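Quick question: what would this complex look like in 3D?
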Amino acid sequence: RKEVEQDPGPFNVPEGATVAFNCTYSNSASQSFFWYRQDCRKEPKLLMSVYSSGNEDGRFTAQLNRASQYISLLIRDSKLSDSATYLCVVNTGRRALTFGSGTRLQVQP
Amino acid sequence: GAGVSQTPSNKVTEKGKYVELRCDPISGHTALYWYRQSLGQGPEFLIYFQGTGAADDSGLPNDRFFAVRPEGSVSTLKIQRTERGDSAVYLCASSSKGRDNSGANVLTFGAGSRLTVL
């Protein structure tokens, strides 16, 4: 079983839609959680950290459910510029972060 | 520098050749990471440096792969006797000892070195 699992998608949504991605992790001792965004043929960039209490950054909301070991990302009012791959990232107890395979989002006009 | 710099951006080599990939991290960042990303996959951890020493090299796939960071800044990833399966984008990231509000380190990636082994 992979340490971090994501639905690869693609999620095809119209502009203005709300879309949610989930990610599950296997190590219950994991301490920190992130969502990174990766545009085609570009490097990953931090989108947001995920806090236990949940957190919001503009149109983006991240939630953590430790009991079920999953993390979610909600994007409201999708823009064309949101089209990208969203990587779920977990500190599984190793010194380096573990990345999921990513969920591809395509926002259509 | 302002960001993480990686060279070369593209490298095409023949099977069996030796390759070096260079990473220049953000000035002052003590932690440096190498990841490898294949098409359709997320970055896969290779090795992590804290200062000059390799704090965790458990991700290196075999002894053909080696990395150094002699002065605690620039790092070089070295691949001997390259194989076609080594073809991937090799990503370098760095982070400072500072942490975000959650207490976690945040990685800043370079643009990557795309390696193609023919």
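Answer marked as accepted. Chain A is about 0% helix and 55% strand.
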